[in-house]
Specification:
The structure is a single chain. By secondary structure, the chain is of the alpha+beta class. It is built from 10 helices and 11 strands. α2 crosses α6, α2 packs across α9 and α7 runs parallel beside α10. Belongs to the peptidase M50B family. This is M50 family metallopeptidase. Keywords: Hydrolase, Membrane, Metalloprotease, Protease, Transmembrane, Transmembrane helix, Zinc. It is a multi-pass membrane protein.
Length: about 425
Amino acid sequence: MSYLLGVVLFALAILISVSLHEAGHMLTAKAFGMKVTRYFVGFGPTLWSFKRGETEYGVKGIPLGGFCKIVGMTPQDDDVEPGDEKRAMWRYPVWKRTIVMSAGSAMHFAIALVALWIIAVSAGLPNSKFPTTEAGFRAEPAVVAIAPCVVVENAARACQSGDPASPAAQAQLKDGDRITAVNGRPVSTWGDMLDVVRGTKPGTATVSYLRDGTPATATVDLAAVQRPPLGDPKGATSAVSALGVALQPSTPARVEYGPVAAFGATADFTGNMAVQTVHAMQRIPQKVPALWNAITGEERDVDTPISVVGASRLGGEAVENNAWLVFFMLFVSLNFFIGVFNLLPLLPLDGGHIAIAWFERARSWLYARIGRTDPGRVDYLKLMPLTYAVILVGGVFTLLTVTADVVNPITLFSR
C-alpha cells in the first residue's frame, strides 16, 4: 500500500510541476500584455472549467501534463481575433518572447532550487568529500558500523527473519570501532579488512580493534556467505567469510547547513547537477541499445534513461522504504532535467521557439548592415517536417523508456 501511495504522490508531484511550468508561460505572457485564452491541467475531455476575464481555466480528464494557449505564437497562427493583432505573441520584442518561452523551464529550476534549499537546511546535501568510488571506499579507515544480520545470498536487501545474526554484533563490537587486525593479520583500511576477512575461513577468528583509542580483542564466529569477487559485482559468487559490518566513513555522507549558508551550498550543488545533467543528456543516444536489451530480457543498466513511469516507480520504492530523502532528491533531479531538456533548440520544445526568435533578430540585424531587405519572420510551416521528425524520435524514445520501466524497471531497493 505504501508503494502505491508513493507512486501516486510522485506522479502528482510531476503533474503539479508541469502545471507550474505552464503557469510560468501564462503569467509572464499576461504580464507583457499578450492574450492568453486557455490554461488547463491535463488533456482530453474537460472535467471542469471557469472563465475569468479573457482566460478559461480548467481541468481535463487525462492527467498527463497541461497547456496554456497564447494567441499568435507564430505568424502563421490563425487564432488572432480582429482587434487583437497587436497582442499576438509573435509581434512582441524578442526579449519578451524569450522570457515567456523560458518561464516554463524557469519554474522547474525554481522548484528544484527551493526544494534543495529546504533539503540543505533540514536533511543536508551530499558531501562532495564523501567517497563515491570503490577505490575511495577501500582507502577509508576500517571503522565499522554493526549490521543486525548477514545476508547469506548475494542480494542487497534488508534483514529478514531467519537471517543469521551479525558475528560482530554477537561479539559485542560497536559502531565506531576501528578494526586493526584479524587473526593477527594487520588491517589499516576498509579494503584491507575486506581482503583479510574474505581470505579467512568461516568460523572462529580473533579481531583486534580500537574503541575510543583503547585497544581490545574479540572472538567472533565468521559467517559463510556467497559473494562475487571484490571489484567485480557481476562476477560468479563463491563462499567467503563475513563479519557482519558496514563501513562507517570518516566523512559524513551529507552536510546540513544553516539558512544563510544553504544558499551557497544549493548553488554549488546545482552547478554540479547541471554538469551531470548535460553529461547524462550526451549519453542518451548510446544508451538506446541498452534500453532495447533491457526490454528483450537482459539485465537493466542502472545508467539508462527512465520515463515518468520509471521515476514514479522509484518514488514508490522510496516511500515504501521510508526513504523520503531519496523521494525528494529524485523529484529535484527530474525537475532540473525537464528544465534543461525544454531549452534544447528544437521544435516543438520551448528552446526551439527561443532559437527561432533570436535567429530572426540576428538575421534582421545582419540584413540591415549589408543593405538588404529584411526577409521577415520564419515560416513555421516550412519547419513542420523537422518538427514532426523530432516528435517521432521523441515518441519512439518515450515508448522505449516506458516499456523498459514496465517490463524491466530500475530498482533502488530489493522488494
